[in-house]
Structures are given as C-alpha cells and as structure tokens.
C-alpha cells in the first residue's frame, strides 16, 4: 500500500451506487455548463488587455510603455491598474463564495447557480457598455459575484447528484466547461481583435454563456441532499428517482439522507465554527491546500496572460492569440483524459502524474527562456525558441488538464460531511480566488524582475504539492459521500484527528 492511499477496490462502491441514467447525464451536463462563465472570463480578460483600442481608451499609459519598450521584454505589461482590472473579479468572487455557504444551505444549490448566472449577466452587460474604467470595474465586480456563487454551488451539485462510482468523471464536466469557455473566449478575441470596438463585443458576449447556464440551471432540479436538508422530502424522492432511474428503489438512499440530515441538524452550529473542530482538521487542510496548490501551479498566469506572455516572448499580435487558442484546446482535450480515468486509476495517480509533467515543463521553460533571452532579458527571442516555449506550455497545460484542473474542484466537493459541505466548498473557492488575486496582482511585476526565474518559482511549488499528495491525500475514488469518513480513519496521518473524536 502506498503511503497515504487506501485500496477500496475490493469493496462495492457503496450500497446506493446507482446506474448511469440518461437523466443524470443530462442533468450533470446542464449543471456543469456553469463552468462556461468562469472560463469565458478567464479567456476574455487576457486577450482584451492586449487590444490596442482597449488600452488606448482605458489604460493609455500601458500603451505608451508598449511603444517605447525596446529594452526588457519581461516588463512591457507591468501595470498595477491593468492587473487591478483583471483581479477585481477575484476579490468580489471571494466575498460571494463565502456568502454562498449560507445561501446554498438556505435556498439550495440550484438556486444559487441561478443567482450566480443572473449576476454575471448583469456584469457582462455593464462591461460591454463600459464608458470608463469605473464601469469596467463595476462590471467585473458583478461578474465576480456571479462566479463566486456558481463555483461554490456547482461542484457540490455534481458530486451530490452523480452516482458515487462515477463521481469523478461527472465532476470533471465542470472543468471541461471552464476550458470550453476559455477556448470560446480566445477564438472570439481573435476575431474581434482587429476592430476598434472589438473589445466591447468580447466583453459583452459574456452574456451568452450567462444566458445558457442560467436557463440550464432553471431547468434542473436541486440535489436530493439539498432538498432533504431543507425539509422537502417528497421533492428529494423525485430528484433521486430522476437521478438513479425509475426502475431503482431509492427508499434506502433517501432514508440515509434523512438520517444524516437529522444528525446534522441536531448538532447544528455555526458551520464556520463547526469546520474548525479537530475532527474536521484533515478536511479543512485539504479545502485550503488543494485550491492554493492549484493556483501556484501557475496555470492562471499562463491562462490570463498567455497572449501577453507570447507577445512578450516574441510572438506577434495575431500569433500570440493563436498560441493561446492552441494552449486552450490542448487543455480541453486533456480534461477528457481525466474524465476517462479518474474513477479507474484514482485521483492520486492523476495528481502525481500530472504534477511531475508540469514540474518538468516549468523548469524547461525557464531554461529555454534563460538561454534564449539572456539573463537580463534584453536579447531578442528567436522564433524557434518561442515555439519551444509554446510546445512546453502545451504539455504543461495537458498535465494541468488531467490533474490539478478538474481535481481541485472535485476533492473539496466530495470530502466533507453533509452538514459542512457548503462551507467547505466556500472556503475552497475563497482560497482559490484569494490566491489567484495575489498571483495575478504580482505576476507581471514578478516576471519583470525575476524574468525566467518566475517559472522556477512555480516549478518549486509543483514539487511541494506533488509530495504533499503522495503523503497526505487519501484516495477517494468510488467512496459514497456519506462513507467518506472512513478514508480519514484509515489514513496513516489523519487518523489521529478523526479517531480521537469517536
Ligand atoms: C482554475 C482556474 C483556471 C482554469 C484554467 C480552473 O480550474 O480554477 O483558475 O484559470 O482552471 O482552465
């Protein structure tokens, strides 16, 4: 047995495993489309911030520097206002995701998704019509509230509705739609980049994924757990029958949910206090560590700034956007790899395999950039080296796509007991946004000062997180949500926290 892992292969994956039904597949696909709005935003902001008319209207100082910058290729886009434009969304998202803990418990996962979609829609409309920086930032704050709500509610929704044996695969749908949003946004940026008001279209078109996901969320029913928690037992039964198939007897599963909900209600406390109890230490550590680690893989730096980065390292305007599209497509395809194997080989295998690959790529990017641009970054990079950087980044994006991308949404949504599940997911999303904020706020400055060393910084983190997974993350594949406590009880390190409480 590997350190920190447990084999559950020989045991049936729970009594209420359910089959894959058409209805559960459609429901989960519809729910997962919530990822579209987040992905669209990630993709669009990176591209729009390289569009000359956009910079001219809102950030003229960056444009001035761009035309003067002949000296150091790493520093062209180092502007605090420009990064504030991108990052304001994350601060708003952070606040919203913490609020969403109570909201999803009170109104359900589905309604939180609907609310998130509507808020995002409003933000997209304001951004498309922006006349000044203030409107731009206000729009982004609303977009932030939108993704704060949906990123909190959707992974939990997917984990609660999916049959336990295939929970991993269903949950990767969220990341798949994030990736789809990124690619769609990159393509739109490519098409609009040449028009003087193209940025308006790019930002305004965020209304489309918002309408798609909000309509979808209105059509699905809430999760059985959430309905039981809110005392809607008959609706919960209907939702279960829909998810597990009409031929299946759902009485046992429903009775178990009711029992868990009653236990949770009897011990009802403030969930943000509950989560601090010693018995939830392993869960809490994971809900903080996993999203933090996801961000310090450096993925957003690549995703937000791929076009900027490629321009900085020698690609022209068009080719920088094409490079970003290629990167997005590679990432998207690799998520499907995760969908295919996450419930067969497990989460740990993907984390370790993906992490190793990403580590190698980050180190290699640093070496190529150091060799190609010189230590000061003043040498012009050759086309060949720029392509080498692109290839390495593609392999890196593939590694992310089958490991830290989807699994960082999956793990926090599946490890918590019902009574603090929404809170655990809120903490996780808040940490994700907070880390994204800090990194995006500092990355361009870091790139400007540390140059290729920036990539070594992320490589170091990837090594740390891979070792962390090896020693501390138990395997969760196939375990029904309500039996998840067993993985901690049998873990070489975490058992001391959970056993003492029995
Ligand atoms: C991450 C984002 C990232 C995206 C890239 C998501 O899972 O949370 O921060 O930009 O994947 O596709």
From TrEMBL:
One of its GO terms (molecular function) is monosaccharide transmembrane transporter activity. The chain crosses the membrane at residues 20-40, 81-100, 112-131, 137-158, 170-193, 284-308, 320-342, 349-375, 381-405, 426-443, 455-474. Its main location: membrane. One of its GO terms (cellular component) is membrane. It is a multi-pass membrane protein. PANTHER family: SOLUTE CARRIER FAMILY 2, FACILITATED GLUCOSE TRANSPORTER (PTHR23500), SUGAR TRANSPORT PROTEIN 5 (PTHR23500:SF44). This is Major facilitator superfamily (MFS) profile domain-containing protein.
